[in-house]
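Message: I would value a second opinion on how I read folds in token form. Give me a protein, with the fold worked out from its sequence. Write it directly below this note and I will take it from there.
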Amino acid sequence: MKEKYIENARGRVYYWISDQWIKDRTTIFFFHGLTQNHTLFDSEMRYFEGKYNLIVWDAPMYGKSRPYKNFTFTNNSKDVLQIMKGNSVKEIIAVGQSMGGSDIQSFMTSHPDKIKGFILLGSIPHDNSYYTFFEKLWFRSVEKMYGIYPLDETKKYVAQNAVLTKTALKKMNDMMSLYEDKEEFGKTLQVKYHAFLDDRITVKYPCPGLLMYGQYDTVGKVMEYSRIWAEKAGLPIEIIPNAGHCANLDKPDYVNKLMEKFIEEEILKNK
């Protein structure tokens, strides 16, 4: 993968593209979740390299894309467009894990002509109408709640709560090791959750989409909301056996084959 970056008034955002980049080939853009970085999708990079053009980023405020100011989901989408334009990409297939799914939902609602399909893994609806008053209050209080505990304990809890296997836990710990400042860690979570609530959009689904979640996902109400969301939006759903919140880390081969099947049979079937 080739490292690149965009730069604007908000900061510098790093991303990586396929070594085997072919003009006009279908492009998959990968969006990681909170406290993570582009390495969440290392397995996907290996699996799909040579089949599609691949883009994976360190999302604004995460990994190498720090510092970053004035985060909103509107600005986030502008960064995605800037990356696409810089690589002559007209539309993407979007794959998102956890809060990366919100990146995608916001983007495809404001730019429906730029996306041809999406796959969301362990994500929740980016639509305030799904959530109760108390759930919204929780979203706005994340920084304070995590701030009660030492940073090392918080990182350990987040990592262990996200995965089931030893290999996946090592990957989570490696990603979490980038955060050494407790205040920065808390602010990064809080800014994105506040932006999540402030976006206030009704999500539109302009293309085929698939929801997935791990059989043993214990993060928030991901499982409950995935089922409600799938029924309400008419989206297909897959449950990944013996996997946690980051199911693509616990069961990479299983998840990648499901992704490939959906891309080939649903997203690209009328290409």
In short: The two ends are 26 Å apart (CA to CA). The longest strand covers residues 2-8. The chain has one domain: 2-126+203-267.
